[in-house]
């Protein structure tokens, strides 16, 4: 069944809830996240048609906040505009759901992922002895999937606090993340107080080299970017955000998360996707040899995928 789209999540100064409507998508425009399909609603008790797919599970559309490149997320959840004024964001009033249907209330505290996690198909990560102040990695955009049938695929590096999980920082490469059967990049921070925050999204093409960065810019201020190094005329996908006093010692070299996948043909037609030149910095110095570990999901579609650690700076996810 074809995906239906929701109207772009444009939040007013009064933080009115996003509205849902049918829209067409054009390259270069800020696109809209994919609304859940009827089979997903039937599978997840409590979820309704007002929910959308994100790299962090299913969220009610009013709990997804878009932040412009000229704006910055503050520690209290307000958003600082370019003119210095703050716009307040209404607190999320709805639960979110993991891909496996697990319900998480908006007021619930985030916790570290279990050793086998049903949301991700593959996760390659390491826990550092100290928090990092910067993580960078390259990804090459894969070919389009052989079968384009409404599935959503997310690939990303990321950062979390292993002991105090409040949020995750991640530059994300997505297939059909915005409902247009194409590849996009966007930067995310999820899920303080049940809300997920996202910056602008940019359409990219197979073969393009994407540079993802998560950089501490002083204090608790972080900037997440995804940049197309092949097509330098494109804007970067940027999110200026807060670290919420976390120590980002849990480093994701590469991860894969999916929605609507029922066959191996729904992955890119060739692979693997390569995460290369992965560099985590502690005190301004590169961590020389992170101890990467592989955590596969227990989903049935995990059988289509495999993660491999090539060396200390390179990992692959094949499908």
TrEMBL record:
| Listed InterPro entries | Peptidase_G1_sf (IPR038656)
**Signal peptide range:** 1-27
Record keywords, A-Z = Signal
Record carries keyword Signal? yes
Q: Which domain of life is it from?
A: Bacteria
Kindly provide the name given to this protein in its UniProt entry. Answer: Secreted protein
Organism, per UniProt? Solimicrobium silvestre
